[in-house]
Design goal:
Number of domains: 2
Radius of gyration: 22 Å
Largest sheet: 6 strands, parallel
Number of strands: 12
Helix content: 40-55%
Distance between the termini: 34 Å
Order of helices and strands: EHEHEHEHHEHEHHEHEHEHEHEHHHE
Length: 389
């Protein structure tokens, strides 16, 4: 099945040439930990900076108590539906993962589709196929119908088939748009021969992100390398279990465990580090790797999701097998033995993510929105001031 073609908004009028495009972004609360929130912050900020777009953010999720989460979900869906039915939106852009995130956003997609408002579904979950395939067959059909948007953004070529086969969206409506990165204007001077080498892991502190593989790998390093390396693990998830694993491996002098950190603290870590470590078992295109590469860190990753094409082993980073602490440890030993190579890989990593700058990314999104619209769909002049609802 294919996604229905957009139809003009009821009661819409021809658009003035200077009228900005009205974009509704549906996603998480801005302070929510995780890569989706990082992408969404850049999305809203870089759209709001433009003269040809007004952006409104509606949130349907936050990491709060169950009752408050339910109120936010119901209220956010209601606000989005009211804006769509009231003719106050030209395009709806929804950031979606899996599970309840997919169901929440699917309801809004279905309403917009019925109203003739184009929708862009921005997918982020590396394990969407696993979740979808585990649903009962009748529910899979419902979810596929709900999520059948006009465009379904994926983060890498390899993710296309996940959504074309399950949602019934043709391949030409599934563009690959990699995550953006905010470009650090200046890098610190990194001495390749400094005694201490700092590494950073940024992400959920769960087994499938490879954090326990990383702990095992560090524990197996040569003693002098283990003494030289200092790794900060920062993220939300099972922080206590990770701290217990670090203590059990007697790595208190080499590994520091923090909970989730904000952008300023993240940038402070990246400024001081040389290695970005993410031996994940599955991914889309993780923001932490893009951010680390933009700061000139050498990425040490697994060939999963978009990382399989972004990071080239021995060229702009190091690629290790999934769930293989011994191979990860060997790679770290090599990087700690050759200071020049480590720094060179970081420099090439920065060069390779230059095309991921957020300004060009926002330009591409706006071009995509305009492809979905015909002149009759756009209303007359609206105010330019962005509104965050």
């Amino acid at each position: 099945m294919t996604s229905p073609a957009p139809v003009p908004l009821r009661g819409s009028r021809p658009r003035s040439g200077s009228a900005p495009l009205r974009v509704l972004v549906v996603g998480q609360a801005e302070g929510t930990p995780g890569g989706i929130s990082s992408v969404q912050r850049l999305h809203v900020r870089f759209l709001a900076a433009r003269d040809d777009v007004t952006v409104r953010l509606v949130t349907t999720y936050d990491e709060v108590g169950a009752a408050a989460r339910l109120r936010l979900m119901v209220g956010g869906i209601a606000r989005a539906v009211a804006l769509i039915l009231g003719g106050r939106v030209d395009v709806v852009h929804l950031h979606v993962a899996k599970g309840l995130s997919a169901l929440r956003k699917g309801l809004i997609v279905a309403v917009a589709r019925g109203r003739g408002v184009p929708t862009v579904l921005h997918t982020h979950a590396g394990a969407f196929a696993e979740w979808f395939d585990g649903l009962p067959r009748p529910l899979r059909r419902v979810v596929a119908w709900l999520l059948r948007a006009d465009r379904v953004i994926v983060l890498a070529d390899g993710a296309r088939e996940t959504y074309t086969s399950r949602l019934g969206v043709p391949a030409e409506r599934v563009p690959v748009v990699a995550n953006p990165v905010e470009w650090p204007a200046e890098l610190p001077a990194r001495d390749p021969h400094a005694g201490r080498v700092r590494g950073v892991f940024l992400g959920r502190l769960i087994d499938r992100k490879g954090v326990f593989d990383l702990i095992d790998a560090i524990a197996g390093l040569h003693a002098d390398h283990r003494a030289r390396l200092h790794v900060t693990l920062a993220g939300h998830g099972d922080v206590d279990a990770v701290r217990a694993a670090v203590a059990a491996a007697d790595l208190g002098g080499s590994v520091e465990v923090r909970s989730w950190i904000g952008p300023e603290e993240r940038d402070a870590l990246l400024r001081e580090a040389e290695l970005l470590l993410l031996p994940s078992w599955w991914e889309g295109l993780p923001m932490s790797v893009l951010e680390g590469m933009a700061w000139g860190l050498c990425p040490v990753v697994t060939p999963v999701g978009g990382l399989a094409t972004l990071v080239r082993d021995g060229d702009n980073g190091v690629v290790v097998p999934v769930n293989d602490p011994a191979a990860l440890g060997a790679a770290l030993d090599k990087l700690l033995s050759d200071d020049e190579v480590r720094v060179q890989l970081g420099a090439r990593a920065r060069e390779s993510v230059a095309p991921f700058g957020a300004d060009a990314w926002a330009d591409r999104l706006v071009a995509l929105y305009r492809e979905l619209l015909v002149p009759e769909q756009l209303p007359e002049q609206h105010g330019r001031k962005p509104h965050h609802g």
